[in-house]
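Input:
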Amino acid sequence: MGRIKTEQNISRKEVIIQKAATLFKEKGFKAASMRELADIVGVEAASLYNHIKSKNELLNIICFDVANRYIQKMDEIENEKISSLDKLAKLLRYHIHGMIYHFDEVYVSDREWKHLDNPYLSNLQTQRRNYRKRIAAIIEDGIKKKEIKKIDAPTAVLIMLHAISGIESWHRSKQKISGKELEENMITILIGGLKNK
Amino acid sequence: MGRIKTEQNISRKEVIIQKAATLFKEKGFKAASMRELADIVGVEAASLYNHIKSKNELLNIICFDVANRYIQKMDEIENEKISSLDKLAKLLRYHIHGMIYHFDEVYVSDREWKHLDNPYLSNLQTQRRNYRKRIAAIIEDGIKKKEIKKIDAPTAVLIMLHAISGIESWHRSKQKISGKELEENMITILIGGLKNK
DNA sequence: TTTTTTAACACTAACGTTTGTTAGTGTATT
DNA sequence: AATACACTAACAAACGTTAGTGTTAAAAAA
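Output:
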């Protein structure tokens, strides 16, 4: 077989990672084999190890790439001078975009992080916990300012984040509404469910 | 080792199934091994096969037990003479109860069905698709009667079901609010997000 | 430009584990 | 006496990964 084909500015390693994300999404991390991944990449299994250290490294990279993107966005949004409800809506839209346009990595990061090995596992768990707390803080701020209903903030976070991960079934569905419509419907229901009066 | 301990009205097979559900939930179906399950049950791996046909049979049973319970409840609710929004709320509460009190099986059924083998795989997929359609029908009825906002019904279904599966993180969280509180908060946000005006 | 050197990368073969599962045998319970 | 059930031993297949060798593209030297 020939070499792994690369386009400009995208390394062979990145090709592997991206195909791994797709495979892990479809089969699950444990059920996906390196030989299968190699097939998809167009190379023998052993050759993958010229580019990566292990199967688990692939999962590490996928998970932390995603996590870091969300943390960065959170940093941005927290400092904006807009209402809590607007911050929430902005965050929500960012998550929805992620689920629509970077589906494979986001899905894997969400569902397969259990199979990370330490110290990556506990690192990611901590990151995720902190991230959820920052969202909860925005919500609590909104409740204090009476923009948002009096509800349990952690519960609201849990609903938000998991509702978004439901876009998974949108991807699988036959008659899809457009991404834009999906986004607006989700905002309507979720922000509508939080808004005071 | 001795025999598998059973209590009244619960067969050895059912003991295995229930411990399998817990194990599959914690490790994922593929990552969980029969030797591990045997350890938990308190028996050698080979002995499990006096009670079950295969590892996959365990998954089949878990998934279809759950699916059938929900379908049965749907049959009940559809025929009640109450508003669409009330039907939805009732269904929601049933799902929330399931996630709180039968967590292991429900979680496994939700996340590990990918690893079913045919014909069970396609059977379950069809069942799930139909189930979602029946929920969507209730929502569309509610929209027609102006009880519910004008939104895309399948999207609302997707949000509802996935929001509920978020109870998973409630289980994992340190400072849990009570199950009752969780239920009421979820109803507030989700039904609130759907209600017209 | 042409040639030589080097580094990147793909190959085959095999390793040690772990996997689900079966066969066959013995031992308790009915 | 018969049935239910647990045991030991072993199987074939699949797994992630390594070692060692060849090959091709890129960098350096001519």
